[in-house]
Amino acid sequence: xxxxxxxxxxxxxxxxxxxxxxxxxxxxxxxxxxxxxxxxxxxxxxxxxxxxxxxxxxxxxxxxxxxxxxxxxxxxxxxxxxxxxxxxxxxxxxxxxxxxxxxxxxxxxxxxxxxxxxxxxxxxxxxxxxxxxxxxxxxxxxxxxxxxxxxxxxxxxxxxxxxxxxxxxxxxxxxxxxxxxxxxxxxxxxxxxxxxxxxxxxxxxxxxxxxxxxxxxxxxxxxxxxxxxxxxxxxxxxxxxxxxxxxxxxxxxxxxxxxxxxxxxxxxxxxxxxxxxxxxxxxxxxxxxxxxxxxxxxxxxxxxxxxxxxxxxxxxxxxxxxxxx
Length: 325
Fold this sequence. Notes:
The protein is α/β, with parallel strands linked by helices. The chain is built from 17 helices and 6 strands. The protein has 3 domains: 3-152, P-loop containing nucleotide triphosphate hydrolases (Rossmann fold); 162-221, Helicase, Ruva Protein, domain 3; 232-324. The protein has helices at 6-15, 29-38, 48-51, 63-78, 95-98, 105-119, 139-147, 159-172, 179-189, 193-206, 215-221, 232-238, 242-254, 259-272, 274-277, 282-297, 303-324; strands at 3-4, 21-25, 52-56, 87-92, 125-130, 149-152. Strands 1-6-2-5-4-3 form a 6-stranded parallel sheet, with helices on both faces. Strand 3 (52-56), helix 4 and strand 4 form a beta-alpha-beta unit. Residues 319-325 have low confidence and may be disordered.
């Protein structure tokens, strides 16, 4: 069965079209717990006590315990829902089931029973297996790949996904964040989970004791906008889009990129792209590069202004060449 992102699974839950089996993987415990908990939304709140069940598999480490645990899981899944179309069974720490020790006949029989459940899932029940790291070469994982929806937590698809991640992380810390503040954190960090986690951790520390995290708090604590594409500036110059190139340059400077690195990218662009795109402007472009390099070394102006001037010249040459072509 197909692998899906957390955002895609949430869309299925909202549409009420959940699959029979999900395997939620990853090191991000907060994200995994939040996603697994959202499956309860498939059941009316007043009937969840009868139709939503959570089972911890962390202590199923011996043959007898594994046998008893698997029997409980199978019984929970095979139980018909009460007064609702679907029942939810969530198994936490499921790595003990996906990569178990077949140390006894009881363990072997239990695993065979679990494999049969996965091959023939209950259509009226959604089984959610939540695990950390698993051996993807193992027999049980390969079976789940065929029969279950595999969800890798920790990778974000877009800024909207990052914003939801921020809200979830803050909520897990028993704090509240303004929607605009969560949006700004996501916009600045993009889909970089490591940067998001670091920014949220700093925010929580900075606002310790406050009732709510505000937009001003985010502006004080988090860094400038993250670059989503290191080559967006050169791509804009290729297209003759000076305004976009200057905007991307500003992002690079705000993110701490040194002027020498940026000039190196522009040199690469002129050497490798301009001969085909603007052959007649290669020489003037190289001269502009050398002039800017010399001005930077002599501290003959603000580095940002010097490179902005160079970009405008390169974009102008590119537009003229494009018209000639």
